[in-house]
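Box 3.1. Reading complex inputs
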Amino acid sequence: MAEETQVTRRAALRCMAFGGAGTLFALAGGVFTPIELAAAADLKRAARLGKPLFVQISDTHIGFNKDANPDVGGSLTRTIELVNSMAEQPDLIIHTGDITHLSKPAEFDLAQQLLGRLRTQELHTVPGEHDTTDPTVSEYLDRFGGNSDRRGYYSFDHAGVHFVALVNVLQFKPGGLGTLGTEQLAWVAADLKGRSASTPIVVFAHMPLWSVYEPWGWGTGDAPQLIELLRRFGSVTVLNGHIHQIVQKVEGNLTFHTARSTAYPQPAAGVGAGPGPLKVPPDQLPAMLGVTSVAVVKHPRSLALSDATLA
Amino acid sequence: MRLAPFKSIAALTLLVAAAAGSAVPAGAPASPTIVVAREFMFAPASLQVPAGSTVTWTNRDDEPHTVVSDAGVFRSGALDTNESFSFRFDKPGTYHYACSIHPRMVGTIVVE
């Protein structure tokens, strides 16, 4: 709906001022509506958006200190302030990984301290490959493994929606993509078995669960087996981070959405040597972190997604 | 803060000196033992060394990299810009490794 996709100048300025931002997903008529966060923070619009269900934050990369953004803690703080300023608080926060940059204890501690300032206290996370580089992969699981008995992947239900948190960064095959693995896929099959096809499903993992750009590893090798398990459901939303930019795809009843980072942008697929930090002039940085897409759901089979840039 | 074994700039400097210098002590490797991670590639991608050599990887990218053996023989933590990791190869064999953050980055150490 054009009305929802147009960003007011006030909202645009506010969003740019805030810097990093997340994506709000409101539950409207049983389906999800990803909404640009700045619009959600606008009090006059908030009443029309329905009950905010969750906000997705991704790739906070606490510990990163290079030129592309020397103050990632500040960017996350501004994101949190933006979420906290929403008239109606979301039920949940979902972080789709790369919480830290180097898996260091001090980075995790700072990230937890900052995320603890969210008014919404229910936080769900999955690890990114930057969170699992310590020798025993225990720093992440010690802090965030409570929901999953330290496996990393788990599911839960909220407001009639079934959420599935998956890990695709622990079984890298050299030269390949992310991997879910046979054990996790079997767990998903068992988890979904017997659930009504009308149950809205939200799946989230760090790396894209569809092939965005294989030469840079922007995909998950065995994701097609996961997708097959999801096809029978009427409304499936698949959320990822990892690539620090928005890419969306709609395939039948499945909507795929990768979120921007709150820390720094990355180049578009295939531009440059690899997926490293993209340096942009400082005045352009907030717009590359702080704008998410606007999407309006009329019906799960006629999902309409579009990007809105504020540059 | 935990440090990986041998992970220091000092170790790298010593190895560079050993590799480049003419006065190589008896028993020390004669071939270069430095691998650089730059622009999302390991260079050289394949390196031959005598048994007993210590190989040092140094990250020259803005993005962190890791050095993880396919067979679980060695594993660095995340190496930030200009950080290094070293491993001593005592047993002859072929060791394949990759960066766990960017698994398209692969390399091989052949120990003779």
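In summary: The domain at 9-19+35-111 of chain B is CATH 2.60.40.420 (Immunoglobulin-like).
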